[in-house]
Amino acid sequence: MTDLATVLGRQQGRGVLGPDPAREQQAHSRGFAAALGRTPSRAVDLGSGGGVPGLVLAVECWPEADVVLVDASQKRCTYLELCVADLDLVGRVTVRWGRAEEVGRDPAHRGAHDAVVARSFGPPAAVAECAAPLLAVGGHLVVSEPPEGPEGRWDDGALAALGLVREGSERIDGAWFTRLRQDAPCAERFPRRPGLPARRPLF
């Protein structure tokens, strides 16, 4: 088995992970786990990209959880599958190639997860619309925020239409995170067709 820092370094070499030092990306990833405050059974990393935070959470924070890494890029998914094999995570961590809107319509994933994490996935409205269909009632969405914080980024009324309730935001090791709870099943009309959550955001 290859260690996590080496795997993340390979992802940087492939051009699918940012240039920040691996230890900083690992520390930021651990912030998602701290913001969630518990270990989920089934979790999704929405827009996994190079594998941060999903791979870090699966290895360092949630070693018992089943984790799904979702990304719309076939190339990134191919690299993620190599990472999963290198880290000996096959069977517990899976890679799902597809748009988040499509995954949210997949019966295998709809309402099936108790945590969704999102880092640099898109504007808050798109994140919420793509994450809510994946969450079971009582599950949580944790979103990383820009350095200036979450002020003015969320609309509680629009979130209610998705069954989401914003529980709060906190700063952990210098980074902001917002936690939302799936308070009711997401309405069947969400997510809308691929691309629409970002082009015509709910808020």
From TrEMBL:
InterPro entries this protein is in?
rRNA_ssu_MeTfrase_G, SAM-dependent_MTases_sf
Q: Taxonomic classification, please?
A: Bacteria, Bacillati, Actinomycetota, Acidimicrobiia, Acidimicrobiales
What terms describe the molecular function in GO for this protein?
Answer: rRNA (guanine-N7-)-methyltransferase activity
Task: Report the domain of life of the source organism.
Answer: Bacteria
* Record-linked Pfam families: GidB
> Which protein is depicted?
Glucose-inhibited division protein B
Q: Supply the alphabetized keyword list.
A: Cytoplasm, Methyltransferase, rRNA processing, S-adenosyl-L-methionine, Transferase
- Listed GO cellular component terms? cytosol
Originating organism: Iamia majanohamensis
